[in-house]
Amino acid sequence: MDSTAPPDAYPPRYTASGDRIRARVKALDVPQREIARRAGLSWSTYQRCTQGREPGVGVAVPLARALGVSVEYLWPSPDVPRPPQRRRVTPASEKA
After folding, report:
1. Can you say how many angstroms the Cα of residue 42 is from the centroid of all Cα atoms in its chain?
2. Sign of the C-alpha dihedral, residues 88, 51, 80, 67?
3. Which among 80, 60, 82 is positioned nearest to 70, based on CA atoms?
4. Residue pair 51/17 in contact by the 8 Å Cβ criterion
5. By CB count within 10 A, which of 13, 51, 60, 63 is most buried?
6. Would you say 41 and 63 are in contact if contact means Cβ atoms under 8 Å apart?
7. What distance lies between CA 59 and its chain's CA centroid?
8. Exposed e or buried b for every residue in 36-45, given b needs 16+ CB within 10 A?
9. Which class does domain 7-74 fall in?
């Protein structure tokens, strides 16, 4: 994500998870770095989640546990479009 772009340059649907994470951290009154530590996440991964990148399952599950919420709390409802997911490109040398 381009850190020079203004926060309102990204559609709100991309920040739903970040808003929920920040709200829960504030309600818990626990430092953000402590939440990241409890979830077993690097600081940069945690920051990406709070700044608009929707976490995948491998990040959302431990983060939800650290926050004391369900995974569903972190993700927007199914009718909200999600950002495009990166696809792994298989090198030709791995194709049979």
Report:
1. 12
2. positive
3. 60
4. no
5. 63
6. yes
7. 7
8. beebebeeeb
9. mainly alpha
Rounded Cα distance between 17 and 93, Å, is: 38
| 96 residues of the chain, pLDDT tens digit each | 444 444 444 444 445 788 889 889 999 999 999 999 999 999 999 999 888 777 888 898 999 999 999 888 877 655 555 555 555 556 666 655
Separation in Å, CA 82 to CA 1, 4, 33, 55, 93: 15, 23, 26, 11, 32
Structure letter (DSSP) for residue 2: -
Distance CA 88, CA 48 (A): 20
